[in-house]
Predict the structure.
Amino acid sequence: MKKIPIVFCFDDNLEMPAGVCITSLLVNANVDTFYDIFILHSDKCTFLDGKINELPERYRNCRITYRSVGREFENAFEIRAITYTAYYRLLIPNIIPEYDKIIYSDVDVIFRSDLSQLYETTDLTDFYMAGVVSISAGVDTAYSKYLEGLGINPLDYIYSGNLIINSKRLREDGIIPEFIEKASRTKYRFQDMDIINIVCKGRIKRLPPVFCLSVAINKYASFRLENPCYTQKELEEALQHGIIHYNGAKPWKQYCPHFDIWWEYYRKSICYDQQYYFDFFVQKMHEYDLMPLWERVKILARWFMGLRKIFKS
């Protein structure tokens, strides 16, 4: 049995998406994969007795452990409706000391494959972190200038929503206090993501985009756009099999790329509620009916493009 440790950090507002996310992780696990799941939370959270506890009863290939972060980062900078729980990932090496290497994931994510091979083959001997480079950084001028102002090469800047963390090295080199200091003193535009890229600069390993199919990566893959970060083969693999990260619009709130895939896993999840599911889609169909013809045509065009890719594969 291959034991893979993985961490999630969220608050009560994301309990339902977290249930869907973790369900997708377990549904796609290999028969010999066991996920040791850790959930970091604040003292204020009430979801500890919620539906997520039903997962180990339904799926025998996991264990769930809750770890309190207390009230750490409660006064840290927040922006774009991203709460202070985003900073919890910075404390993982200290809060979960039993593992030297561990995966972190946001919960606005759908897993479509097993993680054991990527986890086992990612050598972090000389690195603090491994992640997927933000595909927008090398092409968005304003974004690039902001990163350069932080002393970061835009082509090295990784997303923080999906990480493999070298906890042992971070502890040994005393990096966690640096994370905490920056989180408490500076208002970074991209919060924990900026902090990770600044502090770990030069010690970050690049992973293929299959580990994080972000909104931007999805756009470049879907329309076969050239990008300096990844090859078309890497982008196509991410589109077909990648971990979908809904780091823009959320599918449980509105239309977005791969909206249908998220709802497919919602139906399979411990959080499934037939009335909620029905009411949501009735509302969305009503919204669709009220859209101008051109908007509906664009939605259908994107849908047909997706079907074409599926049949071609």
In short: The chain has two domains: 2-272, 276-313.
